[in-house]
Amino acid sequence: MDPIILKAAESCRWDCVSLGEVMLRLDPGEERIHTARNFRAWEGGGEYNVARGLRRCFGVRTAVITAFARNPIGQLLEDLILQGGVDTSLIRWVPYDGIGRTVRNGLNFTERGFGLRSAVGCSDRGNTAIANSQPGDFDWQNIFAASGSRWLHTGGIFAALSSSSASVARAAIQAARSSGTVVSYDLNYRESLWKGIGGKQKAQDVNRELVSAVDVLFGNEEDFSATLGIAIEGVSNDFSHLPVSNYESMLHQVAGLYPNLKLIATTLRMAHTATRNDWGAIALYEGKTIHVPQRPLEILDRVGGGDSFASGLIYGLLAARDAEWAVQCGVAHGALAMTTPGDTSMATLPEVEAVMRGGSARISR
Q: Which residues fall within 8 angstroms of residue 212, CB to CB, at 6 or more apart?
């Protein structure tokens, strides 16, 4: 595996840009979606969450490449993104027809789960502005060659949105790679997104092609199995109890199949209940395994934990820290993100560093 080489920060407008859909998340809090009468609004999306975490927790320059229907919901999403400090200049605005026949903005209803009751997500995201986008809708040359970004992040959620979204991702990846931008991809398998368009076979066809063109790959054990067809020794239907050596073997399998990859990372999670998980990670970089053992974690809202792991790891590399520090940073940031509501991180860098040092949860005052 070759080392990751980043462009100089001073040569680029952004440290990282993310390509993906940003939805309006409606959260019933402690209630259930189907019985709630009040919802709290957030913004969120698998790829966007990485850019926001990098900006708000780690202070790096980020932007989001997406599209919105120009209506009050789109304007609300823009306002939420601005509150997160992410550059909105790459958002493409699409005229709204009045009722959403031709274009709309995505909604995501999410209940957190508690104890034996698992978290539930219900998306309403068909025919959205970014799902309808075509490769030529964005000026890739300007983004990656003229303005410049050190890193591009996208993933399998965006690639699954429509018949054209994978081709948009492909165009972005090609433009980024040709300009020397490091590209990361999160497999982020969601059965609900693929089941109506060909299921796991279609997911594998699309993801295998895109993974063969990127530098850094994120996922979890189910992602690697479902989207790349990687057989993991000892798996039946439960990935939770596998020894670390099985995960290490899985990463080496992926590296053998995709020699373009420079770093492969997977989170490790054992869900005892919706609110009590064991959390850790394992990564492969330059042929060496980096393992952060699982530790018990109490969870308020698990959505976005993997995205925050990715942003913490990416930050470590952007900050020229070694790969082991970067993986530890990702684990700590992901853990903290799951202690607060919403998709996105509310953690600060000092808090992340305290967790990395093994700091306690004593009151800070």
A: 258, 260
How many domains is the chain partitioned into structurally? 1
Residue 18 domain flag: yes
CATH number of domain containing 201: 3.40.1190.20
The CA–CA distances, whole Å, from 253 to 3, 24, 238, 249 equal: 18, 37, 20, 6
Q: Are 55 and 49 in contact (CB under 8 A)?
A: no
**Per-residue tokens: 15:** 């440290």
The three-state secondary structure class of 115 is: coil
The pTM score is 0.94
Q: Encoding tokens for residue 354? A: 């305290």
CA atoms 208, 212, 214, 220: torsion sign: positive
In a domain, 1, yes or no: no
Place of tokens 């684990």: 331
Count Cβ neighbours within 10 Å for each residue of 146-156 and write b for 16 or more, e otherwise.
ebbbbbbbbbb
Quote the tokens at residue 123: 């998306």
51-82: per-residue pLDDT in tens?
999 999 999 999 999 999 999 999 999 999 99
Burial of residue 10 (CB within 10 Å: 0-12, 13-18, 19+) is exposed
Write the single-letter amino acid at 265: A
CB 361 within 8 A of CB 336: no
Strand partners, 63: 17, 87
Q: In 123-243, which residue ranges form alpha helices assigned H by DSSP?
A: 140, 156-159, 165-178, 191-194, 199-211, 221-228
15: which DSSP letter? S
Can you tell me the distance from the alpha carbon of 282 to that of 329, in angstroms, rounded to the nearest whole number? 12
Q: Is residue 176 part of a domain?
A: yes
Q: How confident is the model at residue 365 (pLDDT cuts 50, 70, 90)?
A: very low
For the chain, the 3-state helix, strand and coil shares in percent, each to the nearest 5, are 35, 25, 40
**Which structural domain, as residue segments, surrounds residue 231?**
9-352
Q: Is residue 358 part of a domain?
A: no
